[in-house]
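Exercise 7b. Backbone tokens:
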């Protein structure tokens, strides 16, 4: 049993997948934060573009 636990703790086969999941979650969180900060500016920009396109 001791050798099984030692081999299990030294196994690195899923480490890359975990790193990609954490990295992707961080990027999604950052994108949500940026959109939250700039949402008022984006609303004004979209309104300006719609006015210019319909004129």
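Sequence design result:
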């Amino acid at each position: 049993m001791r050798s099984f636990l030692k081999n299990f703790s030294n196994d690195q086969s899923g480490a890359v997948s975990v790193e990609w999941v954490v990295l992707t979650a961080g990027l999604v969180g950052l994108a949500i934060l940026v959109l939250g900060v700039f949402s008022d500016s984006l609303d004004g920009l979209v309104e300006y573009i719609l006015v210019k396109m319909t004129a």
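Instructor comment: The CA atoms of residues 42 and 48 lie 10 Å apart. The chain has a mean pLDDT of 87.
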